[in-house]
Amino acid sequence: MTAPLTPPNRPSSDDHHDWRKPAPGGEPGAAPYGSHLAPSPGADRNELPADVRRAGVVAAVVTVAGVLMGLLWLWLAPRVPLVSDSTAVFLNDSEGEEAIGADGTFALLGLAFGAVSAGLVFWFHRRGGILLTLGLAVGSVLGSLLAWQLGTRLGPTSDVVAHAREVGKGVVFDAPLEMHAYGVLLAWGLAAMVVHLGLTAAWGPREFEGEWASSGGWGPGAPSAPSSGAPSSGSGAPSDGA
């Protein structure tokens, strides 16, 4: 007969949870591992005013950029030629597509301004956030409205009858710059949102990567967890042969 093997020493509950204890030389009473990953309410309150200021500045700057877009729309939009016979005003070219060309030009300018404004906002701030994205969206919509109003007011007069009397019979003149498809006002905002979210997803900061790596949870140089497994059966006390 053989003597029973010596049972392996079972780790106590304290040894099993040694990973919760601070490292040697650490501060007494330090917070448990992982507790720093939860953002403190005080830090959130301190960041909120700064985020609101950044969003307000972005909204104001993007809105002012609508002046440039309005001037470009006035310059690039095709003109609709009109002519008068002293009794009525007619299209000089009834088959022309200049009437819809103004809307298409505004939409293309909106897409271009949206991509550029989103790229500049990401370049200067290097971060995302709901407030910053909201400021960009609000500024884009207000900028589009400003560009629309500026282009129509600086363009040819909307009093077509008075303009026809002024130029005389048979003289071709430009129709007022008008917008027929109001959905193009959203082109700037949609392009800005898509581009900004894409840039943030591709090159934005990863907020918790540095915290996890520095805490030793994972990554190069992370401490290995203490082994709590039982020794192998081959490491028991030698048996005596009967």
Whole-number average pLDDT? 75
Number of helices: 7
Major sheet summary line: 3 strands, antiparallel
Nearest-angstrom radius of gyration? Answer: 35 Å
Order of helices and strands: HHEEHHHEHH
**Strands side by side in the biggest sheet:** 2-1-3
Please tell me what the overall shape is. Answer: elongated
Share in helix: 40-55%
Low-confidence spans: 15-19, 29-40, 208-222, 229-242
What is the end-to-end distance? 5 Å
Could you outline the blueprint of secondary structure elements for this entry?
Layout: H1 13-16, H2 41-76, E1 81-84, E2 89-91, H3 98-125, H4 130-154, H5 160-167, E3 173-174, H6 187-203, H7 209-215
Antiparallel strand pairs: 1-2, 1-3
Helix pairs in contact: 2-3, 2-4, 3-4, 3-6, 4-6
Descriptors for this entry?
elongated, 52% helix, 7 helices, three-stranded antiparallel beta sheet, 242 residues
Notes on the protein architecture:
It is a single chain. This protein has 242 residues and is mainly α. The chain has a domain at 53-77 and 96-202. It is built from seven helices and three strands. The protein has helices spanning 13-16, 41-76, 98-125, 130-154, 160-167, 187-203, 209-215, and strands at 81-84, 89-91, 173-174. The protein has a three-stranded antiparallel β-sheet with strand order 2-1-3, covered by helices on one side. Helix 3 runs parallel beside helix 6 and helix 4 (130-154) packs antiparallel against helix 6 (187-203). Residues 15-19, 29-40, 208-222 and 229-242 have low confidence and may be disordered.
